[in-house]
Amino acid sequence: SVDASEAQSVPGFVCFVSAKDIPGSNVTGIANDETVFAEDVVTCVGHIIGAVLADTQEHSRRAAKAVKIKYEELKPIVTIQEAIEKQSFLKPIKRINKGDVKKGFEESDHILEGEMYLGGQEHFYLETHCTVAVPKGEDGEMELFVSTQNLMKTQEFAANALGVPSNRVVVRVKRMGGGFGGKETRNTILTTVVAVAAFKTGRPVRCMLDRDEDMLISGGRHPFLGRYKVGFMKNGKVKSLEVSYYCNGGNSVDLSYGVIDRALLHLDNSYNIPNVSSVGIVCKTNLPSNTAFRGFGGPQGMMIAECWMSDLARKCGLPPEEVRQLNLYYEGDLTHFNQKLEGFTLRRCWDECLSSSSYHARKKLIEEFNKQNRWKKRGMCIIPTKFGISFTVPFLNQAGALVHVYTDGSVLLTHGGTEMGQGLHTKMIQVVASRSLGIPTSKIYISETSTNTVPNTSPTAASVSADINGMAVHNACQTILKRLEPIKQSNPKGSWEDWIKAAYVNCVSLSATGFYRIPDLGYDFEKNEGKPFCYFSYGVACSEVEIDCLTGDHKNIRTDIVMDVGTSLNPAIDIGQIEGAFVQGLGLFTMEELRYSPEGNLYTRGPGMYKIPAFGDIPTEFYVSLLRDCPNSKAVYSSKAVGEPPLFLSASVFYAIKDAIYSARKDCGLTELFRLDSPATPERIRNACVDIFTKMCPSAEPGTFKPWSVHV
User: Fold this and answer.
1) What is the pLDDT of residue 30?
2) Which PROSITE patterns match (predicted)?
C-alpha cells in the first residue's frame, strides 16, 4: 500500500504520479513483461512504484522520502544457484550442437570437468539516466530529450504509455555522456515515467537519477555460471566439449535472450572444437533486469572457454601459449555454428603479438624473478579473441540517413546512430567528406539524432553502427552526386559551391535519404545452420602482471595488443576504442564486484564501494598496434567494427594473475588445478595464494553462517 499524504506538505510539491495516472498502457518492456509503475507486487528492490513532482529537484527528493509504503515480504530468488534449484528459467532454452560429443570423449586421452562464476558489472557511464519531457499542448504531442542509445523503443514505449500513435512523440538525442549498452533499453523505465508526469501536469518535467539510484534500478552486465566438460589429447588438442551457461537475467526478459545467444555463439572463442554440445539458460530472479553491456554475452562465453583451455594446458604439462596456438582456427574452417571463416587474420595477429611483446624472452625473465622472490610473483599470458559482428536479430541490421545540402554548400547530416563518446559522428562526417562528396569536413555538420528525421532506427549497439549508418550515409551521398553529374559535366572546373548554386537554380533536389541493410543474415539454432554474423573482428593481447602474495594486490606491468580493424576509418579513434575497451574489461575481470544482500538489495551503489579502474590500473607499458594490409570487403570503405571486440582481451590480465598464483602455490608444494572466479579481486588472489597464513584462517563451511552478501 502507498500513502503519499505526507509528501503533500513538502514545499514545492506538485503531485504524485502512479499507475492510475497512465492514459495509455502500463505494460512495457521488450517482451511486454514489465510495467511503467508497479501495481500490487514489486519484483525487485528498485522496482519503480510512483513518482513525485515538485518545483525543484531538492523538494522532489524530500517529498519522495515522505511517501510511506507498506510491504508484505515475499521469498525472493536472487542467485543463479537459487534459480537452478527452483527451476526459475525463462523459456526457450537455447542449444548449439555439432558433431558427436560422446564419441569425442571416448577418443580423448583426458577429460576435465569444472565450473566458473563471472560476476556482473555496472555500466558507470559518466552521465546517469536523464530525460526532459516537453508536452506540446495539442493532439497528444510530446517532445523528449533523452540520454538513450535507442530512439525507436524510447518513442514506442512512451507513445504506448501516453495512448497516442508514435508520430505524436519526438525523441531527440544530442549526445550521451557514455552508454556502454546501459542506455539501449533501460532508459525507458525512466523516460516513460517522465512522459506520463509531463502529460498529467501539462508542464515540462525533467528527471536525472543520482548515481546510487541509477546503479540500483537500471541493471548491468549479466552474471554467468559456466559448467564444462572437455575432452582432449596428450598434446593439448581439444576433441570434445560439453558446456552449460546460466545467466542471471533479473526480473524481466529485456535483452537476456540475445545475451545468452551471443554467449553460445562465442563459446569457442578462437578455437576449433570438432564436437560441441552446449546449452544456454536465462535465470529469472528478483533483481533489476540485467541488460546489454559492451560485449553482450560474448566476453562471458569466451572467458569460460579460456578457463578450460588454461586448465587443460596445465593438465598436459604444456606451455599455455602452445596449446592455444595448436587449437586456433585456420582460414576456411567452420565454426561450431557452421559459419565459414573468411579473411581469417587471427594467426597473423598472434604471431605479431608474440614478436612485438618479446613473449618468450620475457617469460624466461619472469621464471627467474619468481625463483628469487617468495612474496611477489609475476605472471604472463597471451589471449586471442574472435568477435562476431552483427545484431543476432537479423532485422536490426538496417540503418537510414538523411543528407541536406544548402545553397551555400554546407551539408547537414542526420543518421540513425547516436553519439556517446565513441566517435561515430566523426566517422560519419569523414564518410561524407573526403570519401563520398569530396568536400572539407568543416562544411558538414551533425546537429542531433531524432525520430522525426530518421525513423525506426536500430539501437546504437553491437559495434555495427559505423558499418550500417556509414553505408546508409554513403548511399544518400551517391544519390546527390548522381543528380549533380550533369551540372559538373557542364562546368568541370567549377567549385562545390558553384555546382550547388547551379543545382538549386536548375531545380535539382539537394536532399536525399539513404538506406542500408546487411544482406544474407539469419541463423537457426534448431538446425545449426545459417549465418549469424557478417564478419569477425580479431585481436590478440599479451599481458604481464605482478601480484603481492600477502595482500592480494596486483600491478599491471605491460600489455601488448595487436588488433585487426580492417582499413581504419580513423586510427586515432580506433586505438582509443581499443584502449578504452581493454581498461573497461580490466575492471570486469579484476576489480568491479557488485555485492547484494541475500534479499537482493544492492550494497555497492557508488564509487565508495564499487571500484572502477583508475589511472594507476592502466598497464605501465601499454602498446596498441593495428594490423596492416587487411581490408574488409564487407563494411564501409574496408573498415571493421571496433567498439566491443577488444574488451575480452583484458582476460589476458586475469590469466596472467592466475599464472602468478600458480607460481606462489608451487612454493607451498601445491601443483594441482584450482578454481579462480571472476573478478580476480585482492581477496580472491590472496586466498588462492595458499600459505601458512591462509591455513591459520580457514574459510567457514557453507551453511554454518548467514552471508552478508551473495554472488548473484
Assistant:
1) 97
2) MOLYBDOPTERIN_EUK
Active site residue 72: no
Residue 448: inside a domain: yes
Does residue 688 belong to any structural domain of this protein?
Answer: no
Residue that finishes a domain, picked among 218, 253, 269: 218
For residue 628, give the 3-state DSSP assignment: coil
Contact between 424 and 469 under an 8 Å Cβ cutoff? The reply is yes
CA proximity to 345, closest of 628, 581, 624: 628
By residue range, what is the domain housing residue 485?
398-517
CA distance 391 to 704: 46
Residue 641 domain-assigned (yes or no): no
Angle at 524 between CA 237 and CA 230, to 5 degrees: 20
* Burial (Cβ within 10 Å: 0-12, 13-18, ≥19) of residue 633: exposed
CA 543 vs CA 362, 379, 580, 655, 681: distances in Å: 11, 8, 16, 9, 17
Q: Which of 218, 236, 267 is the last residue of a domain?
A: 218
Number of domains the chain is built from: 2
Name the burial class of residue 74, with classes exposed (0-12), middle (13-18) and buried (19+) by CB atoms within 10 angstroms of its CB: exposed
Q: Examine residue 479 and state whether it is found in any structural domain, yes or no.
A: yes
Cell of 575: 586505438
Question: Of 122, 419, 546, 644, which one is the catalytic site residue?
Answer: 644
Amino acid identity, position 167: N
pLDDT tens-digit series, residues 414-454: 999 999 999 999 999 999 998 899 999 999 999 999 999 99
Q: Read off the amino acid at residue 623.
A: Y
689, pLDDT greater than 90? yes
Note every long-range contact of 80-85, with CB atoms under 8 Å and residues 24 or more positions apart, other chains counting: 80/117, 80/223, 80/225, 80/246, 80/247, 80/248, 80/283, 80/285, 80/712, 81/225, 82/285, 83/246, 83/248, 83/283, 83/284, 83/285, 84/246, 84/283
